[in-house]
Specification:
alpha+beta; Endonuclease III, domain 1; Nucleoside Triphosphate Pyrophosphohydrolase; 2 domains; four-stranded antiparallel β-sheet; binds adenine
Length: 343
Amino acid sequence: MVTRPAVIRKFQQSLLTWFDSHARDLPWRQNSDPYRIWVSEVMLQQTRVTAVLDYYARFLTLFPSVTVLAQAKEPEVLAAWSGLGYYRRARMMHQAAKVVVHEHHGIFPRTAEELRKLPGIGEYTSSAIASIAFGEPVAVVDGNVERVLLRIFPEAESPVPHAKWFRDRAANLLDTQRPGDFNQAMMELGATVCLPQRPLCLHCPVQRFCKTRGEHQAPPPKKMRNRQIAYALLRRDRPGATQVLLYQRPLSASLMPGMWELPEVEMREDDHDRVELTLRHAITVTNYRVHVLRFTEHEATLRWPKQKTPQQWTESSELGALPLTGLTRKVLRRLQIIANEVK
Ligand code: ADE
């Protein structure tokens, strides 16, 4: 890609014309409310658009404004986030909502620099909110944008350039008249056309600026580990109601502190006929093979005589309001103890 201003202008025009006619109709694109844009951008970090849609709608029904979010209790926020993973995002958002309400009269700061002072808002989120909601000419770089940049600038240092290389290239390409649309167009291009494995170059609006047709230097793929894990299912079935026994993870745990889950158990040789469900669950670099074992209350008392962690029999109708771990939610859905309204 040539970086003469006239060429960059043509690149911007081609990309924005495509975006104007091809942008997906996504709920956070309906207005420029910084709160709604913030929620969408936080959810979209590490999570695909299709997985975010239902959570986004439900989250905004429960917490329609930054003021309502600031007043919520943390477990309610985590419950609405349950299944999206990376729960620190939800905790930090809740913290930041309190700062916006108590220190900024409920009004979002308008620049990326000011936004970055809020808890959990870093380079990516601040640039996304500032450009999309307030039109500040700052470039956004996410994983999709990085891939697009690697392909249109194949002279990048190998194997993967530093953050500054991506920032400088993105800033150089940015359309400063329409920064929010340009940033979203770059992300959209990466998400729908400039795909990691089989890029759809024939549909690419900026194909003529790209010499690589999708080949680029990439870091080696992550090595996945395999692990087995087992959970105990203790249930009380009453007419019209089911209860399950859940444990709360310690508040001091580094992963998912305070969230509720099925009790983890060590699986023995003779537990095989207890298996109620087996499923796979991938978290970052680990593929879990998860067995859910059925126990009666009496069997459980013999096997785990005294438990110190908080435990609670929970009605299936109350599970939606509890911050469950994503895996526990998945298991309870498969077993139809939780209704399947969100995939
Ligand atoms: N990925 C994350 N945020 C996005 C946005 N606003 N548009 C398209 N893809 C995105």
